[in-house]
Specification:
Elements: H1 15-20, H2 31-38, E1 46-47, E2 61-62, H3 75-99, E3 102-106, H4 116-123, E4 127-132, H5 140-150, H6 153-184, E5 187-190
Parallel strand pairs: 1-2, 3-4, 4-5
Helix pairs in contact: 5-6
Length: about 190
Amino acid sequence: ARGHGELSMGMSHDFEVAIEEGATHVRVGTAYDKAFKALGYKTWSVMLRKNPFYPDYHYDKVLLKGDPSTLRHDIVSRILRALWLRFLKLLIFPRALLTCDIFIFVSGTHLLPFRLDYLLLRLCRKQIVSIFVGSDIRCAEAFEQEMRELGVLEEIQPFINFVYSLENSHYPAKRRIVQAAERYSTLILSQ
């Protein structure tokens, strides 16, 4: 990290290499699945899309298949895709509710509209783990300060300007995500 601060890189599948390269923080999201299996829990992973960096990793359910760059982006296609995703999530939730005891939501994800799944899961005495990664919950000012301390502010300034342009519209949504996690989660992790 240029001799400044900390370096965050790597994922569950390549954390050994990331550490060898000098990482001080490693993201281990997909390791949760393996860890819970090792503890004897049945796991069931649902992803919107396969992770392009790990195409061979197995997920129990992938909602959108194929290359996202080939998707049509006209308004009708986008609306139909959104409706299809909501339908799939509504189908998945009852099965998950009956078969799973622990639910892990990464980056504020949810299965039901208005995060009703969080409320229903708590009412059914299920455990909820919320995992936030970097800018999922970090405001632009904090991110800018971190980049300044790392000595890379000038390089990343175009991205920070973009984040500032979205801040007013995205901040209320980020706040609702964090508030839902604080209200319903058994455990909150931040990476």
